[in-house]
């Protein structure tokens, strides 16, 4: 059995975690790009969403995570019982998530479905892989919002497509690897082809933002429809 070694050291993140809503049971936050969701095993990676929030809200726990480079809506539980109730919603796929992304190139179709199983591959760590034999089922939908040209360096520009992404499952790196599988990686994605085209090394971040989250409040049982506009 091979041992996985994570050598990633996160650069300092100077952006704040924005609290969009809070009550005695939950927090809804806007996570900045460039901040870990949970602190890493390496002590140099202690800063994270959870590390910051627990200073102000002792006992809070993350219900789900966003990748380091992804920004946007995250749901946080104020105690273990609330966490369990919310995790059940996620596991039963009762939570609806929408992301906004910029994809490299102009997509031909205005909407579509990506159905491709995703597997862990120790030889590729930290990347995942598409594998029909070893992978777990994964399905994402996309809808095109706009096609335009993104300025990079010295007057050059790249064709990009702004899309809404709808993950129907919740696999690690699902949207990033599915977009690569589609042939249009997310702009700025270092793991899955979003920094290979000329000029993409100047893109400031991963162009992926969690822009909508629908769930049922675990105590009031009222539907919550949270939205946060993409910063790009």
From TrEMBL:
Residue ranges occupied by any Pseudouridine synthase RsuA/RluA-like domain in the UniProt entry: 25-180
InterPro entries named among the record's database cross-references: PsdUridine_synth_cat_dom_sf (IPR020103), PsdUridine_synth_RluA-like_CS (IPR006224), PsdUridine_synth_RsuA/RluA (IPR006145), RluA_PseudoU_synthase (IPR050188)
Pfam families noted in UniProt: PseudoU_synth_2
Coiled coil: none
Name this polypeptide is given: tRNA pseudouridine32 synthase/23S rRNA pseudouridine746 synthase
Species this chain originates from: Pseudocitrobacter faecalis
């Amino acid at each position: 059995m091979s041992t996985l070694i994570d050598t990633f050291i996160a650069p300092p993140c100077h952006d704040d975690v924005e609290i969009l809503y809070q009550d005695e049971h939950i927090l809804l936050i806007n996570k900045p790009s460039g901040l870990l969701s949970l602190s890493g095993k390496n002590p140099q990676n202690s800063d994270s969403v959870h590390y910051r929030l627990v200073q102000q809200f002792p006992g809070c726990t993350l219900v789900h995570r966003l990748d380091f480079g992804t920004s946007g809506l995250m749901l946080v539980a104020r105690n273990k019982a609330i966490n369990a109730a919310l995790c059940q919603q996620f596991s039963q796929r009762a939570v609806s998530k929408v992301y906004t992304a910029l994809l490299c190139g102009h997509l031909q179709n205005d909407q579509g479905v990506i159905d491709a199983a995703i597997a862990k591959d120790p030889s590729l760590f930290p990347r995942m892989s598409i594998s029909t034999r070893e992978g777990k089922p994964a399905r994402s939908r996309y809808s095109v919002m706009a096609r335009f040209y993104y300025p990079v360096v010295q007057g050059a520009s790249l064709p990009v497509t702004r899309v809404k992404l709808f993950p129907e499952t919740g696999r690690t790196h699902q949207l990033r690897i599915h977009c690569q599988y589609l042939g249009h990686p997310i702009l700025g994605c270092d793991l899955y082809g979003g920094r290979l085209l000329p000029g993409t090394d100047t893109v400031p971040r991963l162009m992926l933002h969690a822009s909508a989250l629908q769930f049922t409040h675990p105590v009031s049982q009222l539907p919550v429809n949270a939205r946060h506009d993409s910063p790009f």
